[in-house]
C-alpha cells in the first residue's frame, strides 16, 4: 500500500500505517525530522521545488530524480506500506505516487491508474514535470501525461488529506 500525505501529517501517517519506507519530495532547505521508526536507508529525500519549468535559483525535478525514485520503489520490499509526501500532499507527492504505480504495475493502463488517483484524492494535482519525466523514463509514450491531463486539476486546497493507493 502507498500512503500519500503532507509534511505536517508525515509522522502521524507513518505511525498509523506502520510504514518503514518514506519518500520525501520537498525543497532542499525545508526542515525535516525523519520518523524515528524509519531507517535512514529506507528514506529517499528528493530536494526539489514544485515547479513545472526551469526557474533560476530553484531545483526543478529532473531525470536523475526519476531514476532515484524508481530505484528506491523497485527495491521497496512491500512487507510494510510506503509513505510518499511533499509539503502540501497535493502536487509532487501525488505525481510520485502515480509514477510509482506505473513503475510497479507496468502492464496496467495509465488511465485506470490516473482515475484511481483521482478517486482516492479529489485535491490531487500531480506535478506535470514529474509526470512527464516518469512517462519518458518508463517509456509510456505520453500515455501517463495524457491520463493525468484527463483527470484535470484537483480541487483547490492548502493541504491535501492523506490517502492511500493499493499496489495491485
Structure, described:
InterPro entries: Prot-tyrosine_phosphatase-like (IPR029021), PTP_cat (IPR000242), Tyr_Pase_AS (IPR016130), Tyr_Pase_dom (IPR000387). Residues 67-122 form the Tyrosine specific protein phosphatases domain. This is Tyrosine phosphatase family protein. It comes from Xanthobacter aminoxidans. This protein is an alpha/beta fold. The protein has 6 helices and 5 strands. It has helices at residues 10-17, 63-75, 92-104, 110-120, 128-137, 143-151; strands at 2-6, 21-26, 43-47, 82-86, 163-165. A 5-stranded mixed beta sheet has the order 3-2-4-1-5, with helices on both faces. Helix 4 (110-120) packs parallel to helix 6.
Largest sheet: 5 strands, mixed
Low-pLDDT segments: none
How much strand? Answer: 5-15%
Which of globular, elongated, flat, extended, rod-shaped describes the shape? globular
What average pLDDT do the residues reach? Answer: 96
Oligomeric status: single chain
Strand order, largest beta sheet: 3-2-4-1-5
The assigned structural class equals alpha/beta
Provide a concise account of the structure shown.
It comes from Xanthobacter aminoxidans. By secondary structure, the chain is of the alpha/beta class. It has helices at residues 10-17, 63-75, 92-104, 110-120, 128-137, 143-151; strands at 2-6, 21-26, 43-47, 82-86, 163-165.
What tags apply to this protein structure?
PTP_cat, Tyrosine phosphatase family protein, alpha/beta, Tyr_Pase_AS, 5 strands, Prot-tyrosine_phosphatase-like
Amino acid at each position: 500500500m502507498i500512503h500519500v500525505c503532507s509534511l505536517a501529517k508525515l509522522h502521524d501517517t507513518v505511525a498509523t500505517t506502520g510504514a518503514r519506507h518514506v519518500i520525501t519530495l520537498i525543497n532542499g532547505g525545508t526542515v525535516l525530522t525523519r520518523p524515528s521508526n524509519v531507517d535512514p536507508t529506507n528514506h529517499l529525500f528528493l530536494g526539489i521545488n514544485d515547479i513545472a519549468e526551469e526557474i533560476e535559483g530553484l531545483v526543478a525535478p529532473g531525470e536523475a530524480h526519476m531514476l532515484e525514485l524508481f530505484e528506491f520503489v523497485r527495491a521497496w520490499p512491500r512487507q510494510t506500506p510506503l509513505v510518499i509526501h511533499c509539503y502540501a500532499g497535493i502536487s509532487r507527492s501525488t505525481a510520485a505516487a502515480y509514477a510509482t504505480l506505473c513503475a510497479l504495475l507496468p502492464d496496467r493502463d495509465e488511465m485506470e491508474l490516473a482515475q484511481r488517483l483521482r478517486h482516492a484524492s479529489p485535491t490531487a494535482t500531480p506535478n506535470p514535470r514529474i509526470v512527464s519525466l516518469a512517462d519518458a523514463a518508463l517509456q509510456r509514450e505520453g500515455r501517463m501525461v495524457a491520463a493525468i491531463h484527463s483527470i484535470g486539476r484537483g480541487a483547490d486546497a492548502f493541504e491535501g488529506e492523506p490517502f492511500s493507493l493499493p499496489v495491485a
